[in-house]
Amino acid sequence: MTSVTTRKDIGLRYNLFRRKPTPDLCCAAPEDRPVPGFVEAGSWEYAGTMAPDELAAPGFDHAAASLGLRLKGFHLFQAVSPLKGNSGQGTRCERRSVL
Description:
The chain has helices at about 5-10, 60-70, and strands spanning about 15-20, 25-30, 45-50, 75-80. By secondary structure, it is α+β, with helices and mostly antiparallel strands. The protein has one domain (about 5-80). A 4-stranded antiparallel β-sheet has the order 3-1-2-4. The chain starts with 6 loop residues before the first helix and ends in a 21-residue tail after the last strand. Residues about 1-5, about 85-90 and about 95-99 have low confidence and may be disordered.
């Protein structure tokens, strides 16, 4: 199987957002690209960034994220632990791809 992850994709910083009504639904969008249109302030909240030199979210799959970026410009995944947000609670997410 050929990986679709490129060196450029691995070096991306991601802005992380979580859906307020469903906080385990997360969106990772590259920091240098526009926030996806469906991420609205009323139903989504900023949950921090994930830098390339930081330990990735447990289970975060760079290959799946890379494919999501190529197809849609973002990556949706389901968290099994809280994202670190403005409240400071939680640290990282585990991903289950929603592509």
